[in-house]
Structure formats: C-alpha cells, structure tokens
Amino acid sequence: MDDERIIELFFERSEQAITEVSQKYGRLMTKVAMNALGSLPDAEECVNDAYLGLWNAIPPARPKPLIAFVCRIVRNISINRYHSKAFEHRRNGYEECLDEFENLFGSRESVEETMDKKMLAGYIDEFLETRSELDRLIFVRRFFYMDTSPQIAEQTGLTSVAVRSRLSRIKADLKPFLQEK
User: Which residues are CB-contacts of 97 (< 8 A; sequence separation ≥ 6)?
Assistant: First the structure.
C-alpha cells in the first residue's frame, strides 16, 4: 500500500493504518531502535510506542515522506529510552554516534543540545547538498539511522574500511564548514 493511502487510513482513524505501517516499515523501525538500544525487547517496545506516537500525530500531521516521519518518531523514542536510568551503563550505536560527533562540538552535552537545534540541521543539510549521493547516504545511514560501518558497507557495496574512510573525510570537511557558519 502506498504512503498516501496509509495516511488516509490514519485520518479515517482506521486501525488498519497501524497494520500497514507495521508491514511496510516495521523491520526498519526495529532496526533503528536496535541501533540505538542494542536490545531487541527494548527495541520492540519502542516500536510499539512509535505506533501510538503515529496514531496521535496523524492527524493533524500529513507527513511527506512518511518513512522519515516514522523513523524520526521511533528514533526519538529510542533515544529517550536510552537516556532513562536503565540504559546509563550500556554502550551502543547511539553512544558511538555521539562519540564521533564529540570531535566536532567539544563535549557530549553540547552535542545533544546542538543536535536538536534546527539551525544545525539546516547547516548540515546545506553541507550534505555539496556532497555526492553516496556520501549523503553514508552520512545519513550513520548518524540518523545509527547503522554501523559493516551495515553501511553491505548496503552500499563498499568495504567497511572504505565506509569508515569516507565517514572520516566527511566529518573532516564538516567540522570547518560548521565552524565557518
């Protein structure tokens, strides 16, 4: 079923909307949550919470594209769960992503505060527009979906070493770009 029809089901308040989202995006949602949390039971709970979040957000929202909206909701729920007391002692994909960004911003606290600001997102979008499609894909897969280098390598056909090398170059170019802005 296409995304427009799924959104219409939400507007009709049909429970079929959740079923369709689950069939179309459920595996991706679980993967995003797993990358953040590293625990399948916790990831599944976040995905279920995301279904409720979608139900409450649509309507009034009419997201385009639906996939980005769905992933953002499950990602935010997963990150919030990560910050709960139960996860303070664990290290996972979210933690690794923050470590990589730490070098650009200085401290973990400033990373988390800065990443939420629309201005930074706009600058990153502007920077990514100057990069190749492959670089943009690698960057988004790493820092939005929190995929590991081997996962990105599998998706792109590159080696894991090549992915890490490209990420390193992208970050090296991003830092002065952001400092200039």
Answer: 142, 143, 146
